[in-house]
Specification:
This protein has one domain: Vaccinia Virus protein VP39 (Rossmann fold), CATH 3.40.50. It is about 45% helix and about 20% strand. The strands form 2 sheets. A 7-stranded mixed sheet has the order 6-5-4-7-8-11-10. A 4-stranded antiparallel sheet has the order 1-2-3-9. α12 runs antiparallel to α13. The radius of gyration is 19 Å and the shape is globular. Bound molecules: zinc ion. Zinc ion (ZN) binds next to loops.
Length: about 300
């Protein structure tokens, strides 16, 4: 969030601790992937802005080994068969359409959508249809093959992605936490989005109370309470504050989390951004009080050029 490198290590992991909570890892492959780099399996907390992140920049070989070899792709693919997951994606698309309607759009006239980090293609498949042009992008070649076989359109490199712009929607579902270079991707989103285009993403949302519980576990060499804490795959740990700051830094106007949008639609029509912002805050804070644990959260923001 800030430009400081002054941070303290707050969590240390081992391949054993990581695979103990993550069913889709093969332990010996994971051990092989991070061999000699075990001391880099850490999260640090920035002394200035309090952002939690992995200070190490992983090299391409390690990342390839973790993402391609350590992960059981059959188990990973199986997850997209979950009705609950499909329902969440449907809500996500539903909210995108509602925001487009509220902004005055009435018909699909070649609506352009980028699904950045498209994975197995479950969101692209849901969003595509007559009048909607969806382009996926992912670095996982196994997922892309599956994606293509289902007749979905995918960019194989960044230049292809760039030639697709300008777009109306830039979606990143469970992607932001994986990015080693957030700056590059958010600048790319800005470059590709039309003015007032919609940046939408789903990100893990960590509250300090939950983080503290996990810090304690790891200090006692016990696995974290969630597989989501994983400094190779999830290099950035977001919460409400860091999401808002990040959006502000890149000049995106935060509109809503999904739930608040449902509550505020009548107010939105009357253009009451104050009520919308207040309800957003209440929603985020109440989730914190009720659950006190890490949640995923949808974020909808407008590109201010
Ligand atoms: Zn910082």
């Amino acid at each position: 969030m800030c430009d400081s490198n002054d941070a303290d290590i707050i969590m240390r992991f081992t391949p054993e601790l990581l695979s103990a909570v993550n069913q889709i890892y093969t332990l010996w492959e994971l051990k092989n992937a991070v061999k000699g780099k075990e001391n880099l399996l850490t999260y640090s907390k920035c002394k200035r802005c309090k952002m939690i992140y992995c200070q190490n920049i992983w090299d391409d070989l390690t990342l390839r080994q973790v993402y391609q070899n350590s992960i059981d792709h059959a188990k990973s693919k199986d997850k997209i068969l979950s009705l609950q997951k499909r329902l969440e994606l449907t809500r996500f698309w539903n909210n995108i359409l509602r925001i487009l309607i509220l902004s005055g759009k009435k018909r699909f006239n070649g609506l352009k959508v980028i699904d950045y980090g498209c994975g197995w293609g479950d969101f692209s498949e849901l969003a595509q249809g007559f009048g909607v042009d969806v382009l996926g992008y992912d670095e996982d070649t196994i997922k892309i093959e599956f994606f293509k076989k289902r007749g979905l359109k995918v960019a194989t490199n960044i230049d292809e992605l760039k030639s697709f712009g300008p777009v109306d929607v830039f979606a990143m579902i469970s992607v932001l936490e994986h990015l080693q270079d957030v700056e590059y991707t958010l600048n790319l989103a800005k470059e590709l989005l039309r003015p007032n285009g919609l940046l939408v993403f789903f990100v893990m949302d960590f509250r300090s109370k939950y983080i503290n519980k996990n810090v304690k576990k790891l200090k006692n060499s016990l696995p974290a309470l969630t597989k989501i804490l994983n400094p190779v795959e999830h290099v950035n740990i977001y919460d409400y504050k860091s999401v808002r700051s990040t959006l502000k830094r890149y000049n995106f106007d935060f509109i809503s989390t999904g739930l608040a949008l449902n509550l505020t639609e009548p107010f939105l029509i009357r253009n009451s951004m104050f009520i919308l912002n207040t309800l957003n805050k209440i929603e985020w804070l109440s989730a914190r009080i009720i659950t006190g644990k890490g949640l995923g959260i949808s974020v909808y923001a407008l590109n201010q050029k």
